[in-house]
Amino acid sequence: MAILPVYHYPDEVLRQQVPLEKEIDQSLIDLAKDMAETMYAAPGVGLAAPQVGESRRLIVLDCAPKESPRLITAVNPEIVLRDGESYQEEGCLSVPGYYAQVTRSSRIKVRYLDLEGKEMTMDCAGLLAVCFQHEIDHLDGVLFIDHLSSLKKSLFRRKYKKLQAQQEERM
């Protein structure tokens, strides 16, 4: 297993829509393991394949407490039912140092394949629902900042440029 480099905004790989996986092969299984290691090392609660430069429809997430991890690996995940509304602060490994309030569905039902090809469905609420929505967005080339109002997007761009400049100065 390996820790993979995480691509950052505004890299174009983050804006590409990823096609459905046709089969679960060893390369996808290996990628899932590396993504999980990368997510835990970051540390983060979710990671999508485009964030590590891979055009694969694969996400990993773990929203459980650190003392009792519960890794979920989802191939071709899709939201099949949405309900309610929540407004929570989000961040992203691909947009380091920036956090914003985002409106999402408060409850969802997701369907995906596990690494053995078995179809799974899961009812999600709270952080897990937000995380699934956030990571599935990555598979469609959408970042959490795309959910912000025009004014907040403009403020984000200014603030993010400053953050990047500060990080470059430190190097």
Describe the structure.
This protein is an alpha+beta fold and 171 residues long. It has a single domain, classed as Peptide Deformylase. It has 3 helices and 7 strands, in the order αβββββββαα. Strands 1-2-3-6-7 form a 5-stranded antiparallel sheet. β4 and β5 form a beta hairpin. The radius of gyration is 16 Å and the shape is globular. The two termini are 28 Å apart.
Any idea what the CATH architecture is?
Alpha-Beta Complex
Strand arrangement within the widest β-sheet reads 1-2-3-6-7
Please tally the β strands and state the result: 7
Structural class: alpha+beta
Give the integer mean of the pLDDT values.
Answer: 94
Q: Report Rg.
A: 16 Å
CATH fold-level topology: Peptide Deformylase
Principal-axis shape equals globular
Query: What summary fits the major beta sheet?
Result: 5 strands, antiparallel
Low-confidence stretches: none
Quaternary structure type: single chain
Provide the domain count.
Answer: 1
Question: SSE string, helix = H, strand = E?
Answer: HEEEEEEEHH
State the CATH superfamily name.
Peptide deformylase
Beta fraction of the residues? Answer: 25-35%
Q: What is the end-to-end distance?
A: 28 Å
What is the percent of helical residues? 25-40%
Number of helical segments? 3
Tell me the name of the CATH class. Alpha Beta
